Amino acid sequence: MIKLYQFRRAFGLPNPSPFCMKVETYLRMTGLPFEAVNGVNPRKAPKGKAPYIKDGGRTICDSGFIIDYLKATYGDPLDSWLSAEQRAIAHALRKMMEEDLYWALLYSRWFEPEGWALTRAAFFGGMTAPLKWVVPALARRGLTQELWGHGMGRHSREEIYQLAQRDIDALGDFLGGKAYFMGEQPSSLDAVAYAFLANLLWVPLDSPLKQQALRHPHLEAYCRRMKERYYH
Length: 232
What we know:
By secondary structure, this protein is an alpha+beta fold. The protein has nine helices and four strands. It folds into two domains: about 70 residues, Glutaredoxin (3-Layer(aba) Sandwich), CATH 3.40.30; about 150 residues, Up-down Bundle (Glutathione S-transferase Yfyf (Class Pi), Chain A, domain 2), CATH 1.20.1050.10. Strands 2-1-3-4 form a four-stranded mixed sheet, covered by helices on one side. Helix 1 links the parallel strand 1 and strand 2. The longest helix has 27 residues.
């Protein structure tokens, strides 16, 4: 059986990491049997990050490579109906969420005072002294460097949220009145979109990202639809 190694659950969500939640949602959508191993220590992960899976004798890291592996090994029931043009659009939307919106989400969680209080409790609340005094600060410092290296960290707070709000508007406009992002049936893009949107809308943090998402009521309706179908 596939074993999914991910962070522990928090905020009432399947996972506080959109990338972990993406993989779990994909597994649920495809009906593949799996066991979730929650509470993984990323420092002990093969690439120092979560999620990763073990399947038989193989270990696959990175949410994108995991889904590629699952498609190649077990078939592609979610995306086989997509045209080449639809695949290109889905790829672009996924990259927008994972390579742009993600960094604004990270900023709101790790560097805004209210967000950091939630994040610290969710990711490090189970630690004992002296680790709980040292590890959160080290993790935050490392993410500061990553945010700066990416480029998002070089912008002001207002500019970061301005960029992210455009992404959220694009998602809202593209979904429109459709049941799922690529049409009337789900695709693997929905595993990504649900993971990111639920992490914007349903975390108890009143961020500018949440406020922007709430301006598109059909985004929350979409999240409820995904939850009822795959997490009932």
